[in-house]
Amino acid sequence: MTELPELSGKVAIVTGASRGIGYGVAEALIARGDRVCITGRNEDALKEAVEQLGAERVIGVAGKAHDLDHQAAAVERTMAAFGRVDFLVNNAGTNPVFGPMADVDLNVARKVFETNVISALGFAQRTWHAWQKDNGGAIVNIASVAGLAPSPFIGAYGVSKAAMINLTQQLAHEFAPRVRVNAIAPAVVKTKFAQALYEGREEEAAAAYPLARLGVPSDIGGAAAFLTSGQSDWVTGQTLVVDGGIFLNAGVG
């Protein structure tokens, strides 16, 4: 980013943001003047992302999203560096298993829930107590269209994202009126995380979408920027589907 916008005075934490959707969200928030803390497991990748986004306004805190000490460190370092945490975008996620639910390893299923759901709750609790409870703000949970309908062979992931959508509603109800909580449910976005779903057959995969392309991280970044802006001040507890129209094909035989 060659020219930094005027500071907005707002600060965000974006988890799982060294690449992919999280990076796209961080980029969108920085582009409007927010300062941002990004997290990720790989310290080298995180450092590179901080440099690319602009170290003047971005800090990185490496660690595993479900680790309680990491959650505490991310919030504490953000407060120390910027003095506030207005926005939280829970993007960190995992999907290490592919196959039918009948055969899924229960320990793997626990890992999926620990990373995709429990970590989101942990970060939400910490930002709430550190700043948002008294000062307001917004939380955005990155869910998935897999949480809205059966998702063959990635069922554990889909169930965890369905839980995240319900978590969004629970937190929206409890945190109102000071904090708005919404979710985004993307379809396939071109990231390393989703590569197995389109690699080597992108044109074929994109043909199923009415908008004739797969998503890119900036599509989700724009949605997250909207849901953390004053333009969405009367929106809470909702799940915004960002899917290139793929759900329009539901029921088409």
Supply the key terms.
253 residues, alpha/beta, 7-stranded parallel sheet, 15% strand, globular
Structural commentary:
The protein is α/β, with parallel strands linked by helices and 253 residues long. The chain contains seven helices and seven strands, in the order βαβαβαβαβαβααβ. A seven-stranded parallel β-sheet has the order 3-2-1-4-5-6-7, with helices on both faces. Strand 4 (87-90), helix 4 (106-135) and strand 5 form a beta-alpha-beta unit. Helix 1 (20-31) crosses helix 7 (217-227). The termini are far apart. The model has no long low-confidence stretch (mean pLDDT 94).
Could you outline the blueprint of secondary structure elements for this entry?
Layout (H helix, E strand, L loop, with lengths): L10 E4 L5 H12 L3 E6 L2 H11 L4 E5 L5 H15 L4 E4 L15 H30 L1 E6 L12 H21 L3 E8 L15 H6 L9 H11 L11 E4 L11
Structure at a glance:
The protein is built from seven helices and seven strands, in the order E-H-E-H-E-H-E-H-E-H-E-H-H-E. With 253 residues, it is α/β, with parallel strands linked by helices.
Strand arrangement, largest sheet?
Answer: 3-2-1-4-5-6-7
Principal-axis shape equals: globular
Provide the low-confidence segments as ranges.
none
Average predicted confidence as pLDDT: 94
Query: Helix count, per DSSP?
Result: 7
- Beta-strand segment tally: 7
